[in-house]
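User: For a benchmark we're assembling, each entry needs the component sequences followed by a predicted structure for the full assembly. Here are entry 17's components. Please fill in the structure.
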Amino acid sequence: MKNRSLVSISDFTKEEQMRVLEVAQEFEKNPVQNIMEGFVVASLFFEPSTRTRLSFESAANRLGGRVIGFSEAGSTSVKKGESLRDTILTIASYADLIVMRNPVEGSARFASEISNVPIINAGDGANQHPTQTLLDLYSIEKTQGTLDNLHVAFVGDLKYGRTVHSLVIALCNFNTTFHLVSPTELKLPSSVKMFIKEKNLEYHQYTNMEDILPVADVLYMTRIQRERFSDPLEYERIKNSYNLHNDMLQETKDNLKVMHPLPRVNEIDVNVDANPKAYYFEQALNGVFVRQALMATILGLR
Amino acid sequence: MSKIIKELKVTAIENGTVIDHIPANVVFRVIRILGLENYGDMVLFATNLESKKYGKKGIIKVSNKYFKPDELNKIALVAPNATIIEIKNHQVSSKNDVMIGDEVIGIVKCFNPNCVTNFEQVDTRFAVVDKEDLKLKCHFCEKITRRNSMEFI
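Assistant: Structure for entry 17:
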């Protein structure tokens, strides 16, 4: 994996993904090491992010690396009309590794083909967000003890949620049973369902969340955005039917964990936070270890 | 007899390639895709010719040039029924159909307005995921461009 870019989760084989998770376990035990001393990571965020940007920067800092970059394109020459090509060609000569989030879809693949240092895609529009997928896999394995044969329920916006798409595709390697809960207009796209069908895996679709609560090992919640609906009344009608409250967790499996890529709005009530089944903040912490592992592997340090 | 008259509409070439059965409305696009605008030798073309099979058709004759299959397959997207006839010493030396390849580079626009290829100077690139229904998956944004939303560059 040395010197390889990570743009889409499928750029790494199942074995390579597992290797990153294995290295992440090491960093979870020992997160402060000086192995990245002398390395410079460019953190290029053309649009806002809390967790992804700060966890990358935290990961690099804890390993002794230096971070340069920006958290909005407004402070760069992009504002003067500089192309992404020129921006990347310039920064590639300042850094050993580039982490980029950009709202333009395909920008990470484009950057990886013109840059002479590896690119890690930290989200390119609605397309891909592979490091979120790796930390989701890590969180599932850590809490369930395995990735194989689990019942994973996805709830909310399954149509536009890029984290859902990448995670579904990645889980197709692990004999997962999928429970897909969404309003009709936000169902999982057929281009993603194709991967489930190719592997002949079991999947069920629901519009009602209650049905899946007793069977799920993992409950992966997502945010439903108002702007996804052509009819605002339809949004008002369904917005509360995909919200999770603490009392709904009573009849669930003991091993159930509630996950969420965050940010949440109101789809998980704050009264769930204290429940031991709530896992989303630990999930966000796992992002640091997984990103440490990914950078160390790509830089050839592990 | 009628065959001879038809041939006379576009002068025969001694050596080179004839591209026949091009839909009448894409002759100029085929010329562009094959880069014939800057070709140094004789290029003859006609369009809106009568065709028994297709109603109206176009034809292009390129003197002293033989194309690689990859070059010709580029036109399969716009002229799927084109026939490629190679002429040597006024004689037909081969006759072939065009085929859609596995990749389409630099011809079709990605229909996703938020795709990087619509912002940066870069050739579009698609994997042909369905030749029958013509579905192209963008190498960059990974979205599918279908026949009905296809625009040529």
